[in-house]
Protein 1
Amino acid sequence: MTFQNILLEQPEPGIYLLTLNRPQALNALNALTLAELAQAIARVMADESARVLLVTGSGEKAFVAGADISEMQNLTANEARAFSEKGMRVMHALEALRVPVIALVNGYALGGGCELALACDWILAADNAVFGQPEVNLGIPPGFGGTQRLARQVGRAMALELIITARQVKADEALRIGLANHVYPAAELRDQGLEMARTIAAKGPVAVSLAKQAVHCGQHLDLASACELETNVFARTFSTEDQKEGMRAFLEKRAGKFKGR
Ligand code: CAA
């Protein structure tokens, strides 16, 4: 499957690298890119050997500079609704992916770009990263989940400030407010991402997947129900070969060899 606006590679077994690849428009998300993203996510989902997905932007300037403004300019309200729903579906699909998804933010992550990074499980930022929700400058609010995921990530007051003033934050502040997990020199970002992906790929895949699911689903539940969910996924792993192997390996003082079942 070849794409026009994205690249989907497998640099190492189990590790997928998805690159938004429209550098002439700073990787802005147009309808075609969103459709290709949905296809790429489906492809990763269908691969049982997939362990991690890294998401980044091509070029040195931008991760993604937002939804495509030239394509949005003349949308009717109904068309804007359909465009937003299309973007939302992609963000939900990333979040729901069985494997962890890590954003490698290499430059601008604005509007839909910030929303795409937020839909990933966590963010590794280059030291030239700039995050923001500048939509109000265009006379619109965020439309791919920014009002919700940014508030959940950095808290309501900070999210409101960033969305309503359109103030952009650089990598060091993104780290401080909990938007990015780590900041690396731009030239090291990809290698750092791959290193983290290798670490994840060596863990028990069922445990990783269920842990991701428990954190995401639990956020929408009261504490007692969320803890019950954790008990359920914890118990479920005890019917896997990987749990037997992981514990046997610990007791035999060696690294576990996991099969994902
Ligand atoms: N949509 C379409 N094209 C875009 C774009 C976008 N979001 N962002 C950048 N581009 C294009 C520019 O139009 C320009 O194209 P041309 O060379 O054909 O003129 C090219 O990318 C390079 O951009 P600049 O010349 O502007 O580069 P710069 O270095 O001077 O500025 C920038 C970089 C600060 C990121 C600036 O491009 C910018 O502000 N971009 C728009 C950011 C934005 O408002 N994003 C939110 C979009 S709305 C949204 O995302 C809604 C939603 O939530 C769903």
Protein 2
Amino acid sequence: MHCIRKITEDLTWVGANDRRLAMFEGVYSVPGGVSYNSYLLNDDTTVLFDTVDKAVRQRFLENLREALNGRKLDYLVVQHMEPDHSAVIMELLALYPDLTLVCNKKALAFINQFHDCDLDSRVFIVDEGDTLNTGRHVLHFVMAPMVHWPEVMVTYDSTDKILFSADAFGCFGALNGALFADEVDFERDYMDEARRYYSNIVGKYGTQSAALLGKASCLEINMICPLHGFVWRRNIEDFVAKYALWSSYTPEEKGVMIAYASVYGNTENTAEILACKLREKGIRSVMYDVSVSSASDVVSAAFKWSHLVFASTTYNAGIFVTMEAVINDLVSHNIQNRTVAVIENGSWAATSAELIRKKLEKCRDINILENSISIRSSLKPSQLSEIDQLADAIAATLPLPDAAAQGVPSVPDNVDPITMFKLSYGLFVLTTRDCNKDNGCITNTAIQISEHPRRISVAVNKSNLTCDMLLRTGAFNVSILTQNAPFSVFERFGFHSGRDTDKFDGFEDNNRAANGIRYLTEHTNGVISGKVVDSFDHGSHMLFIADVTQAMVISSEPSVTYQYYFDHIKPKPQARAEKKEGFTCKICGYFYEGSPLPDDFVCPLCKHGPSDFEKA
Ligand code: FEO
């Protein structure tokens, strides 16, 4: 039975999923399966973009027949001749006698290589910039050699502004009923697989991928249809931005990937001690035992992280076999622009560090740290200082104190932060309870995000105790404040830290909801209890997504907005009797007396930094 999905009125996905494939291309595990995408355009003429792997041939043929709805197939655009997309070409030529293949010269050569036949009379050869008018649509062909084979081309439908991107923008994983990336939590559930796909399949060809991105940047793109994975119709620029990083070998994250090969656990022990030392310095690390992790996972992680540490025992006077395979894989995938450190172990002749170094020296822009550690069988207490020194050397190339290193982007010139205050917000008291401590803070970020399931989100400044408590307990109440809320409520919950004060001390107007957490009974018109189902780190704030577990209407007073608070509740600043030197927070009006304003100053009221202060 056919299984197809409509993309637009005249474009249909006719591909299929394979969840039985153990090793994609014979080398990459695909525990979540893989999709082979094929797209049928039903215009005045019918056009199919690529076919599928032979494993899903039958489903594909049923899908195509259904989507054609009795029409004949006029054109097959062969964008990529790798057999996972071209296995059904010959069968289609037989099934549809009027079918014309649209491909470039290189693809035709590959068709002849794979099938040993003469197809010249049934082929329409295209080159860069050539077009095919199919009725309403105009297809433009764009060559994309080595993304991932030499014959690869992509197709741009200038009518609906759709890019058929061949292997680019693909992802491992079966589609599981979804077709569009916005139908799943792509960042959480698929981004790692997209990176693993890119780095292992196309990673070697960063220059060529960047060239394709350059061509694509000149196009207005509403949708991207790749040969594997999801169709992109929303937030396309986010995924394109990832490709820009990957194709330029720019690390996505500052931190350390530690890959180790350890026969009896002593090399692993050394690697783990290093990881602890790094974490104590605030440096994030991830660890891979290359004897059990797939090389594709390690390659993918190497494309993600800025610093790579390889710790390997010496084996037959060389690098341990699984580590040697990983290093060779990284070199062949063109890894570059990374800082590297090596650790070796050897019971009688330790040689692996030097051998790893020699292999990686061939890669571009690899900074191999001089500090390395050589252990004999096991790490000795006297060598702990060497690990400290290695951690120091890594930290010296990974400066964390400045904002940029902590992932706080500088504000571009064309971003006026005041614009953010034009957004309208409510104001809420967000309360939590942990280990018998009740706490709460003022927030303006509670919003409903879905009806089914009924969910809300709330963003909380990470410096707030409430944030720490929420991370531990995952439960909260939101009391929706009303216009009659006095300033004292904002002072109580907003201007102090729960670390220093008991915010409920002497505060009578509260009760406990079913989750045991306090909520406000006065100056509030409704209370929503949330149970956290997900949380995301967004730099200064954590975003919590929560199921609504209880909701109560308390009064009919109108909700207070941020604007109303500023206009009617917040006391107006008193004119200072004598002009003092200092800085005023543009956000909340807080006055810092003195000059200069310290670089690391944080407003005690609204938590904004020096860039939001102006000289008084
Ligand atoms: Fe899925 Fe390069 O082919």
